[in-house]
Amino acid sequence: MTHSALGTARRADARHNVARILRAAVTCLGRDPAASMNDIAREAGVGRVTVYAHYPSREALVEAAMVHVLAEGDEVLATVDLTGDPRDGLRALIEAGWMLLAQSTSVLEAALAALPPGRVQDLHAGPEQRIHDLVRRGQALGVFRTDLPARWLASVLHHLLHGAVADVAAGRLDPADAPRYLSAVTLAAYGATGA
Amino acid sequence: MTHSALGTARRADARHNVARILRAAVTCLGRDPAASMNDIAREAGVGRVTVYAHYPSREALVEAAMVHVLAEGDEVLATVDLTGDPRDGLRALIEAGWMLLAQSTSVLEAALAALPPGRVQDLHAGPEQRIHDLVRRGQALGVFRTDLPARWLASVLHHLLHGAVADVAAGRLDPADAPRYLSAVTLAAYGATGA
């Protein structure tokens, strides 16, 4: 192998390891939000040293796992049609967002515990932007209220979605009811006409 | 001193120490949610051993501080008149609840970080019950929607209040706007007639 071919192979190896570690982190944290670096290394089939070579701390790895889950979620949200009636778009976004959240509750819990306050919401900038854009379009079309800023209305849905996850975890809310309950209060909170 | 007088004096000392430690915990955690047992002992003017004699772990002391703050808050909420129009009651409860939350954000943050998931919301059973009772009365009077359970509607306000605290902390919401924004979306979410 030439010097540069060796470099290319090493970089491919590193990418391969990163992918394995991230998949293992999502699996382990999904089972147990307190999963350790050792648990994740074992699941990935790599040594601890390899994990630390890519992620210098558990916090860094948990954040990377959260970013990975959000990127996958973003691909799903990108398929939701938001071009029609904003009220239907909101219902569809809530339905899809709820499914994604329900699948990633445990990774989210790990991230909330391991990352500095506010960091998890900052990482949600992508989904937040989708909601924000939809709210603004609904306001422009006159189907959502305009007496409150779009930013606050978008934040309302964020808080309700994450609050509903906590309610389900605490046994206070049946997950089967959640999307309908969320849509009902969010559409009303947005002052949706004809909802 | 007789044996029993000595016992009485010791118990009075212990009560006095507990009160000092709790006040110091609220002060220290209010300044810094990561305040240590040492910081709190120093603020209380007692030794570490005395703190540990009453609270075997930082988690136990943070929980006691949260309970103390909630009990003080409950005294304030008890003065809010909830006997008139439930819509006015809701606005008054949001206003008072917001003030209390804004004053105790840092203790709340410490509790969220130190206590097991769900514990902080469990400790809020008192304020939750006030909201729940108000929602049920509003439903019975026909001024709040009845197509969703009172429990979920009460939960909605809980999530929005705590979400707004996070928004303020992250610089996404002006605290001066918060009570009005919260009342506007909550009344709408509750389907309040004539709101």
Can you characterise this structure?
Chains A, B: Keywords: DNA-binding, Transcription, Transcription regulation. Chains A, B: It comes from Virgisporangium ochraceum. Chains A, B: InterPro entries: Homeodomain-like_sf (IPR009057), HTH-type_TetR-like_transc_reg (IPR050109), HTH_TetR (IPR001647), Tet_transcr_reg_TetR-rel_C_sf (IPR036271). Chains A, B: This is TetR family transcriptional regulator. Chains A, B: Residues 15-73 form the HTH tetR-type domain. The structure is a homodimer of 195-residue chains. By secondary structure, chain A is mainly α. Chain A has 2 domains: 1-56, Arc Repressor Mutant, subunit A; 65-195, Tetracycline Repressor, domain 2. Chain A is 75% helix and 0% strand. The first copy, chain A, has helices at residues 3-31, 37-44, 48-54, 58-77, 86-114, 119-123, 125-140, 150-169, 178-189. The longest helix of chain A is centred in the first third of the chain and has 29 residues, at 3-31. The N and C termini of chain A lie far apart (66 Å). At the A-B interface, helix 8 and helix 9 of A face helix 8 and helix 9 of B.
Q: How would you describe this structure in keywords?
A:
homodimer, 2 domains, mainly alpha, 195 residues, Tetracycline Repressor, domain 2, Arc Repressor Mutant, subunit A
Brief overview:
Chains A, B: This is TetR family transcriptional regulator. The structure is a homodimer of 195-residue chains. With 195 residues, the first copy, chain A, is an all-alpha fold.
Give the class-level CATH name of the largest domain in chain A.
Answer: Mainly Alpha
Please give the alpha-carbon distance between the first and last residues of chain A.
Answer: 66 Å
Q: What's the overall geometry of chain A?
A: elongated
Structural class of chain A: mainly alpha
Strand content of chain A: under 5%
Low-confidence stretches of chain A: none
Helix and strand sequence of chain A: HHHHHHHHH
Q: Could you tell me the radius of gyration of chain A in angstroms? A: 20 Å
Largest interface: A-B, 35 and 35 residues
Q: What percent of the residues of chain A sit in helical stretches (DSSP H or I)? A: over 70%
At the fold tier of CATH, the topology name of the largest domain in chain A is Tetracycline Repressor, domain 2
Domain HTH tetR-type (chains A, B): 15-73
DNA-binding region (chains A, B): 36-55
Keywords (chains A, B): DNA-binding, Transcription, Transcription regulation
InterPro entries (chains A, B): Homeodomain-like_sf, HTH-type_TetR-like_transc_reg, HTH_TetR, Tet_transcr_reg_TetR-rel_C_sf
